[in-house]
Structure of NADH:ubiquinone oxidoreductase:
Amino acid sequence: MAGLEHYKLAQDPAFVRLSNMNNNRYKYFRWTPRTAGITFAYMVVVPGILGYIAYKTDGKYDFRAKRRGDDMREY
């Protein structure tokens, strides 16, 4: 009853290596200039750009929908 008999298909060794690599990725991570730049971009630059856009467009648009009893004209 024990063993690998319950698998219907043989596992591809490349997929097994890929799965093991993804599961153990944190063990082999190293800070390099490339990984530091990518981390900086995603943790500082992208939120900064989104915050700047949000700050500049704050109150500029009115997304409230028309409701029953509202006048069709914009004032």
